[in-house]
TrEMBL record, chain A:
The keyword Cell membrane applies. Pfam families: BPD_transp_2. InterPro entries: ABC_transp_permease, LivM-like. It comes from Kaistia dalseonensis. It is a multi-pass membrane protein. The keyword Transmembrane applies. This is Branched-chain amino acid transport system permease protein.
Length: 351, 250
């Protein structure tokens, strides 16, 4: 069976190279933001970066791993709490934000050992229970003073303008790192393994995929992302009240962003975060009706556009800016007819 | 490119001793003793509910046996998890196909090559493409698996299994619903696998296809092996004829 030199496996397209370049340029421009924007705009964009982190890490867990969790606020809250604790212990406040996320990722490892034994809805609700437990435990800490909460007082060491700019840069840098890690991770063999587990766990195991270890990588990564987002949120909000950080609304936001943008598409989660950010900016002040609108939109999308905006674009126009998969080039069409005649069919006996 | 056939042909590739599988009070496999050599192709027949599929599930580690041992290539693998057994060379296809629907056909097969076969990237590509060609699926490489029809899903089961570079391939009714032409193609493919020194166990209801390939036949009934040996002889055994309620190979 001779090899056709035209046949090869494509992982990068010209369009995807342009997309990466475009993304790099956008990020570079954003990095100069604090030099031009006022504090209000800086804070808004910082919020957007945090939303992107939340959306892409939940998408990694649910969209690629099939692990639908409604308890990611556990790690969001723990990330903020760990940052408070570290700063209180004298660690530099910005170092403590990053360190907090690393510590919580380590904490998520033993949690994964028992949570990942649960399947489907049990896992989803079980994670919520974990979040409630974490909430209660954090409330016991005398530093937090129950629901009275505490503040990241160490931020006072920075002048207001510097603080806003530092928050912005740390959030932008965190988002960039998360996006790069996730892109590389999902394009690696771990990425295809986790999707195989999502689609059929038993078949994946039967084909040699190490199910538990692969799930654990995605779970810990998603916990790291949520914890980092929580710590960054603390830096922008300064105050730490447990119930605002451990509230289930954080996961509701993540689900909204990913459902609208496109579950299981890399670009979709980013788009979803942007859409959520704009909706909040325009309608966030409308109180209850804002929440009703969010819920209704998520419902409409899951019923009528189940793949989200990006999933729809991808199917309709073959649009794929940041491809994670594999494409085989050089397939001659109509290779298979009633009588195989091109030597490609296994039944051809002559050589 | 085939591995050397240095292992003595007479050595058993797999040996099963006193295998029993119960689901609560229901005994599905009852004291199975079975052994085969690496150069054999063993067909398994038997009425529905005989325990054939469960036997494969226990061999690959999808279900733990209630008692008994499984020895593969001289090592006890009874407690080895399914993914590791696949990496050592035991793989199966599923009677009801289980494609990874959200991935392309190539990606389905590449996952098998990269994990079960433990091939590095470029080798994995070659392996996956080769498996697709062998199963007549190459032209479908970029299709999402969820868009495949039943026949192509069955072919995909075989292509994925082959990509893991198996030493022992367990086939569960992949011949059902084929036309004569397709069945001949399948037989040619399986013969090619035997040339590649893959030991084969094949459960099939369509006995005449099975007899084209198998050089040994086992008949199971109610969780037991009731006949084992030369295919023609097994099909004439009174117990086998009775299990099939008077049906015959022809």
């Amino acid at each position: 069976m001779s090899q056709d030199p035209a046949i090869r496996v494509e992982r990068w397209t010209p369009l995807s190279r342009i997309s990466i370049l475009g993304a790099a340029i956008v990020l570079a421009i954003l990095a100069t933001g604090p030099l031009f924007f006022d504090n209000n705009a800086i804070d808004k964009l910082t919020t957007l970066f945090i939303y992107v982190i939340l959306a892409v890490t939940w998408n990694a867990l649910a969209g690629y791993g099939g692990l639908v969790s409604v308890g990611q606020q556990a790690f969001f809250g723990l990330g903020a709490y760990a940052a408070v604790r570290l700063a209180d212990a004298g660690v530099n406040v910005y170092a403590s934000l990053i360190l907090a996320a690393v510590i919580i990722a380590a904490v998520s490892l033993p949690i994964s050992s028992f949570m990942l034994r649960l399947k489907g809805g049990e896992f989803a609700i079980g994670m919520w229970v974990v979040a409630e437990l974490c909430h209660l435990l954090v409330n016991l800490d005398s530093l937090v003073q129950g629901e009275t909460g505490t503040s990241l007082i160490a931020l006072n060491a920075y002048e207001a303008d510097t603080r806003h700019a530092l928050n912005y840069w740390v959030a932008l840098g965190s988002m960039t790192v998360i996006l790069v890690i996730l892109f590389v991770l999902l394009r690696s063999r771990i990425g295809s393994a986790i999707q195989a587990i999502r689609d059929n766990e038993e078949a994946a195991a039967a084909l040699g995929v190490r199910v538990m270890g692969t799930k654990r990588i995605i779970f810990v990564f998603a916990a790291f992302g949520a914890a980092l987002a929580g710590a960054l949120w603390l830096a922008t909000a300064i105050t730490f009240q447990p119930k605002t950080y451990f509230g289930v609304q954080w996961t509701a936001y993540m689900i909204f962003m990913v459902l609208v943008g496109g579950l299981g598409t890399f670009e979709g989660a980013i788009l979803g975060a942007l859409i959520f950010f704009l909706i909040e900016a325009w309608f966030g002040a409308s109180g209850v009706w804002y929440l009703v609108g969010l819920g209704a939109t998520a419902l409409i999308f899951s019923l009528f556009v189940p793949r989200g905006i990006w999933g729809w674009l991808e199917r309709r126009y073959g649009l794929n800016l940041l491809p994670l998969g594999y494409r085989i080039l050089g397939i001659r069409p109509a290779a298979r007819t009633a009588i195989p005649n091109d030597g490609a069919a296994p039944s051809a006996g002559t050589s | 490119m085939d591995q050397s056939v240095s292992e003595a042909k007479g050595q058993p590739i797999i040996t099963v001793t006193g295998l029993q599988k119960r689901f609560r009070a229901l005994v599905v496999l009852d004291q199975i003793d079975f052994s085969m050599r690496a150069d054999e192709a063993v067909g398994i027949v038997g009425p529905n509910g005989a325990g054939k599929t469960t036997f494969l599930s226990v061999l690959v580690g999808a279900h733990p046996p209630t008692s008994g041992t499984i020895n593969f290539l001289g090592e006890d693998v009874t407690d080895v998890p399914a993914s590791e057994r696949c990496r050592r060379g035991i793989v199966r296809t599923h009677q009801i196909p289980r494609p990874f629907g959200g991935m392309t056909v190539f990606e389905n097969v590449f996952v098998a090559a990269a994990n079960g076969g433990n091939f590095a990237r470029e080798e994995g590509y070659e392996r996956a493409l080769d498996s697709l060609r062998l199963c007549g699926m190459f032209h479908l490489a970029n299709r999402r698996a969820e868009t495949l029809g039943l026949l192509d899903r069955k072919r995909l089961e075989l292509a994925r299994a082959l990509a893991t570079n198996p030493k022992l391939l367990l086939l569960d009714e992949i011949g059902g619903g084929l036309t004569d032409g397709e069945a001949n193609e399948l037989v040619a493919t399986i013969r090619e696998l035997r040339r590649r020194n893959i030991a084969i166990v094949w459960i099939e209801h369509i006995v005449h296809i099975l007899l084209e390939v198998a050089d040994r036949l086992i008949c199971m009934d109610q969780g037991r092996i009731i006949a084992d040996g030369d295919p023609a002889m097994v099909m004439k055994t009174p117990a086998v004829v009775e299990a099939y309620l008077g049906g015959s190979a022809e």
